[in-house]
Amino acid sequence: MELGISTFGEVEPDGTPGNAKNAHLRVQQLLEEVKLADEVGLDVFAFGEHHRPDFVISAPEVFMAAAASITKNIKLSSSVTVLSSADPVRAFQNFATVDLISGGRAEMIAGRGSFIESFPLFGLNLDDYDALFTEKLEMFLQINKQEVVNWQGKFRSPVKQGVYPRPLQPEIPVWIGVGGTRASALRAGRMNLPMIIAILGSNPKHFVPFVEAYRESAAKAGHDVSKLKLAISSQFYVSNDANQAADEFYPSYAALMTRVGRERGWSPMTRDSFEWMRKDGPLVVGDVQMVVDKIMQQYELFGNTRFIAQLVTGHTPHEKILKAIEIYGTKVAPVIRKETGAKA
Asked: With a threshold of 0.70, does the pTM exceed it?
């Protein structure tokens, strides 16, 4: 199993048109995190696109390019690219450029996004939420496979010319990022694309039918199900002591979930809810053994080929985040690779 990290780049908003000191510091910290992840042997680091004051990453490809210059082996991805509000031509050019800089390590996770702020920001109609994603994904995949693209769709002018530069890899690997919509799983399977599921708020067992639908859809379309790639993403924190891990992670997690919950009508996060999420929910938070057990439980359910640990930083000191990455790479990853390798 491949093991990696994703981040949205949480930041304390500067609230200023310039002199963004908090954002500057957070960017430097993110680069430290991906450099360490590479050094401890993790497989992938993914940057999530948002257009909000509390997240610093709005241009994942720029972060990926910066990370490419200070890393050697780790794959670099978005998580996700909100393709619905992007131009597929420009997105391909950006990812192909990162691929050339990194020596063939660029990937894309494409999704519709769980936040909608990019639609009004880029002058798009939210009523076209699904149609925009469908069309732009198809266009990106065509550009990815062909040097000269001949495209005509509903939401942009036709294109009949070459798109450059081309990547070092034969194609940019494109994953579909989904939250819990069955139609998204069916589409990913039908298109024979790798799928990543973000499991953030309920027992992972509830997603088993979702994964089964993905594989059944691929089989019905004539694809080799044994070659499908599946990733699971859950919020994550590890320490050498289980109680310490919970105490260090909870303030950041509670602040994030309460802040987002206010926008979506959720109840504020409580410590009891948090502890349930650790025990029976999707949170991967604890000491090394607890984290290994939780990742392996997911593997037993889904047979996934990749696990992505979603970092929630917030109030957690940066040096503790770095320590968690170190433990993940040096103590958790070797056990997971050995156990999943044996089972495979």
From this structure: yes
Inter-residue contact 285 to 237 (CB < 8 Å): yes
Number of alpha carbons in the 13 Å side-chain half-sphere of residue 70: 14
The residues, ordered by sequence, that sit 6+ positions from 224 with a Cβ below 8 Å of its Cβ are none
Q: How far apart are CA 296 and CA 184, in angstroms?
A: 25
204 C-beta neighbours (distance < 10 Å), count: 18
Q: 287-319: buried (b, 16+ CB within 10 Å) or exposed (e) per residue?
A: bbebbbebbbebbebbebbbbbbbbbbbbbeee
Rounded Cα gap, residues 304 and 231, in angstroms: 6
For residue 39, the SS3 value is helix
Burial of 320 (0-12, 13-18, 19+ CB in 10 A): middle
Other CB atoms within a 10 A radius of the CB of residue 34 amount to 25
- pLDDT single digits (tens) 33-46: 999 999 999 999 99
Tokens of 6: 């994703």
Consecutive 10-residue runs of the chain (344 residues): their mean pLDDT? Answer: 97 97 98 98 98 97 98 98 96 98 98 89 93 96 97 94 98 94 94 96 94 98 98 98 97 93 87 95 97 97 98 95 98 97 81
Cα separation, 303 vs 333, whole angstroms: 17
Please, are residues 144 and 96 in contact by the beta-carbon 8 Å criterion? no
At 241-280, the pLDDT tens digits run 999 999 999 999 999 999 988 888 888 899 999 999 999 9
